[in-house]
Amino acid sequence: MESMNTEKVCNILNEIMEYELAGVVRYTHSAMMVSGPYRLPIVQFLKEQATESLVHAQQAGELIVGMDGHPSQKIAKIEETNRHSIKDILEESLGHELHAVSLYKKLLESVEGVSVYLEEYARGMIGEEEQHSLELKVMLKDFS
Hints:
Blueprint: H1 6-33, H2 39-66, H3 86-111, H4 116-140
Helix pairs in contact: 1-2, 1-3, 3-4
């Protein structure tokens, strides 16, 4: 069995942490911008996503510390489109979730066959992010 490139894995986890922290900001901002008759359930959904992004960032940070790495204090760049219709917010959220899936897949590729624990973590996170993507796709059906 090959050994794990801890530095590479910590770098990916930092990228995940920074992206999840950006998700906290993105979802919080989006929740404030929702208007219209469906505001309340969508605001609730977006606030839940913000809370979950924070938990995901904390989990990644704990893994970094557990591998003697140093968690970043940065957040990933957040593109501000200034488009705040519910459809735009949901589409941007879907894009965010799909990118998160790609980051967790990148982690999985780096730990596959070298750490069962990190493999299971990455797979679980891919599953969660894919579930969110599916939820958003269903929410967007009304807009097509």
